[in-house]
């Protein structure tokens, strides 16, 4: 097993602002007032209605999409939110790609935070993926890593000299010194869930799924956004992935972008705004 100092260096080398949503931060639903008004009232508009697939990020699970899922289902959409194992880009991409290949018909694929890495890679070369949606997310190019992008612009609460001040670590059995990272529960509300009621953020912190430290250094592959149109929502109060970095990534990808006064977990704090963007992607991919 690696020494404490080595583990510190491993995590620090790529302290990732990967995104939580409660495992992405295991985020559950949440209601804080949305800033964008109401999601469009109309439901699916034609026979080839896309299936909407929602991918969570680090330190969260699919429940982080619960509020958005409910809103989309009420409008008649088929919504799927598969689990992300948070083991690394290669493994998580392979799992999502296998899932996507079981679906027939058009798909709109959305990812939050680290989920942006996963959808960027899993969608490459799949003809039925009609649009990508990035929510407070990484939008990587080939060769980029979570650690690299999280530190590209100042302001991430995870980019600290001593990662042990942010993360609790648990050795991964058979992981050759790799560790699972958990965000310290007392830091979770202020870092990831500002604007979310404390009782809800405490639940999200308790249910977070761990992110493998080695995943911070895994490079991204050929990006799907070079051939598939994309939409993006930037939370201007995001303390995990700095808004300045999100703006650079969305501009590079040519994403249709909206900015909302929201924290990193905008799906929890501002579900109407996120729903709006997903529906815009559905309509724009017709």
Describe this structure as you would to a colleague.
With 286 residues, this protein is α/β, with parallel strands linked by helices. It is built from 11 helices and 9 strands. It has a single domain, classed as Alpha/Beta hydrolase fold, catalytic domain (Rossmann fold). Strand 5 and strand 6 form a beta hairpin. Helix 3 crosses helix 11 and helix 4 crosses helix 5. The chain is globular, with a radius of gyration of 17 Å. The N and C termini lie far apart (52 Å).
**Low-pLDDT runs:** 1-41
- Helical proportion? 25-40%
Query: Looking at CATH, which topology would you report?
Result: Rossmann fold
Q: Rg to the nearest angstrom?
A: 17 Å
Whole-number tally of structural domains: 1
Helical segment count: 11
CATH architecture: 3-Layer(aba) Sandwich
Largest sheet: 6 strands, parallel
The average pLDDT is 87
Order of helices and strands: HHEHEHEHEHEEHHEEHEHH
- Assigned CATH class: Alpha Beta
Q: What class do helices, strands and sheet pairing give?
A: alpha/beta
Across the major sheet, the strand order is 2-1-3-4-8-9
User: Based on CA inertia axes, which overall geometry fits?
Assistant: globular
Task: Determine the CATH superfamily.
Answer: Alpha/Beta hydrolase fold, catalytic domain
Topology:
Elements: H1 4-13, H2 22-25, E1 51-55, H3 66-74, E2 79-80, H4 89-100, E3 107-112, H5 115-122, E4 129-135, H6 146-150, E5 167-171, E6 179-183, H7 188-192, H8 198-206, E7 211-212, E8 230-235, H9 243-253, E9 256-260, H10 266-269, H11 271-284
Parallel strand pairs: 1-2, 1-3, 3-4, 4-8, 8-9
Antiparallel strand pairs: 5-6, 6-7
